[in-house]
Each structure stands twice: as C-alpha cells, then as structure tokens.
Amino acid sequence: MNTRAAKTPDAYSIGRRLSLQLALQTIVGLGVLLASIYAVNVMLFKTKHEEQLQNYAKVLVDIARAGEERGGVPEALAKLAWSAERRPGTFVEVRDAAGTRLYQDPPPSFDVSARSSKSLAFTMVLAQGEAWQARVWLDCSQDARTGQRMALLLVAFVIAGGALAGWGTFWRVRCSLRPLIDVADQTRAIDVRRLDQRLSLAEPVEELQPVIDQFNGLMGRVERAYLQLEGFNADVAHELRTPLANLIGQTELALSRERSAAELADTLASNLEELNRMAGMVNDMLFLAQADRGVKARRGEPVALSELVRQVLEFHEAPLGEAELSVQVVGEQQAAVDAPLIKRALSNLLGNAIRHASRGTRITVHLDQDPDDGVRLWVENQGEPVPQDLLPRLFDRFFRVDTSRCELDKPHHGLGLSIVAAIARMHDGRPLAESTPALTRIGFSLMRQIPQEML
Fold first, then answer.
1. What is residue 339's predicted lDDT score, i.e. its pLDDT?
2. pTM for the structure as a whole
3. 238 and 274 share a domain?
C-alpha cells in the first residue's frame, strides 16, 4: 500500500494569470494593428518610389528628345549628363537597340545592387524614330532606414503596451479581488466557538453574493447540526444514565449480602430488561445515523399499504385491548416501498397514539393521496392536544411533550417519531403532524416511485 500523500497541485494566482493573458492579448492585438500600419507605410514607400522612377523616366525621355532635336545624338547625351548633375541619388544607363552602351551617369554614391535601391527599365523613343533602352536606379536607403526605425518603434510600442496592460490588469485585479480577501479573512475567523458568525461585505458584490449566501446557509445548517449533536449527546447521556444507574444499583444491592438463587434470577431478569432497553436505544441511534448519511429505502414491488397496517395492528392487539382502544383503517393506497421500514414507522406511530389516546376512544389510520404523486399515512387519535409551538419538534430525537421526560407506566426513549421522520426521508417524503383540541394526527408522506434523478 502506498502511504505517500498525494501531491497537491500548485495553486495559481488569478491576478497573475489574468494579467499574463491580457498582456498577451494586448501584444497580439497591438502587434496585428501596428504590423498593419507598418505594412501600409511600406506599401506607401513602394508606391512613392515607383512614382519617382516613372516621373524621372518621363523627364529623361523629354530631355533626350529635346537634345536630339536641337543637336542630334551628342546633344541628347549631353543633356542626360546635365540632368545627372541635378538629380543626386539616381543613376541612369542608356543603350542602343544593339545593346551598346551610349551613356552612363558618373559612379553613384550608393550600391545599385542593394535591396534599398529600386530600378525601372524604359524605352526612349527619339524624334527620328530611334529607340534607346534605358534603366534608372533610385537610392531608397533613407526611406529604408526610416522604415527600420519605424519597425523598432512599433515593436517597442507593442512590448510597452503589453507590459502596461499586464501591470494595469494585475493592479486592478488585486483591487477587485479585495472582497475575496475579506471573505477569506472572515472565514478564517470562524471556529467551533463562533459558529454564529456569517460572511458579509461592506459593499455587496454581485458575483460574490450568491457564494456568500450559500456559505452562510451552509454555516446555518452546520450550526444547527452542531447544536443538535450537542443536544443529542446530552440526551444520550441522560437516557443511558438512568438504566446504567439501575444496573449498577441492582448489582451492588445483589452483591451486598448473600442472595438465594431466586433473588439473583430476579435481579438478572431486571438487569436484562434494562440491557434490552439500552440495546434498543443503541440500535435506533445506529439506524438514525444511517438515515442521516443519506441511505435510501430498498423499494420492492408495489404493495397494498392497508395490508401492512393490518399486519402491524396484529402486533399491537394486546396494548390496544389494555387501553380499550379500537382501530379503523380508512382508504387504500398502493406504493413501491421498503415494507419492513414502513411497518416499523407504522408501529411507532401506533405506539405513540396508544400512549396518548384517551381510554375507550378510536384510533384511525388514514391512507390518502398526496398532491405530489405520493401517499400520506396518518395515525389519528383523540386525547390531549399537542401545543402548536411544539409540533415542529415532535420529530426531534429524545423529545417528549411532557416536561418530566419520563413516563414510568409507559416507558420509551423518545426516538420513535425521529425514526418515523427518517423512514419518510428514506422514501423521499416528509413527516407530518397536526393537532386540534379534538384530534391529533401524526404521520408521513412518501413518493410512490423512485424519482428519476435518483436512478
């Protein structure tokens, strides 16, 4: 078995991640925009160079033709040489139709083979019809240097824009996440002695408020569960103390002097009764613990609930006869249920009704249709009404309506109705209780079938 703890993944910073993402987005966005600007400028430079070459070519053609008309070919060539002196940054070469060089400018100050040089080939048609092949080169190094500087500036702008956006985002995120830090500090301050503390913000945040509400709701449930657990532990201690004290006292009394076999047998029988009561209490608590963990009932085929009621009534014939009580079953319903659990719940309800019903009255078991496609089982008895403020607590563990918490003639440990509520939840239902001066009705509802989301 590998006992090494699983490696916890490294946490990441929302601020740093958002800052990095926005910085990258800014760099990409600015890069595309400024690259487009750079490409447009390069295209404008190229168009400018082409226009300059074409205009200069037209000027050269006009100069050559004017010189040829005035003094022939020599004058035309002289005019071209005169033009070269006035157009620095250019270089012209002229050849005749056979390819013989007729004219060439003085060696230029730039490299005509460099990428920064542009050239244009054109034809000079003279007045007498002779055609010369010419080429003109233009020095574009200055514009190339300007383009390079522009590219460097644009790259710097992209990097600076990305860095500024990242830093600004990180700062804004840190400020915006301040409510989260406050919530974390408030959460850290909550401990078992301060379960009543709730999260709150001086200025509500729309995105955080649902989380805060859910957390506060969770803390409310935790606080109630903790208080119930404390009360449950106190009730368990109280309920177990009495039978334990009886066992200890009877055993000490039996050992205080010599006893006959019959007396020891009576003591053991009494101790066994207390032990059985304690065992029943422990079993009930274990059952409730399973129900609290979300265990669901094992449903079988649909059965007639009235038949389950009749089976439970057979078990309670003796106490019903002692209390001179009669029972009537009203209604008929069928549902897929866990039959042993339903019979246990009905037995607890009948036992509760028998304890509190007035002697000689009738107990009625109602099987009704529930509006939510379910079934309601009521056990109705006539007797002392339950105060309305105590009705919600009837299904609490170890709760008894009587303040003495002990009924010597009808001993029970106060978990019966809690088990009824647990069985109702296991069947996706809920406990029910009503009380009027004339009647008290206690029962539960259950769903006929398992809900689809549970399948």
1. 87
2. 0.52
3. yes
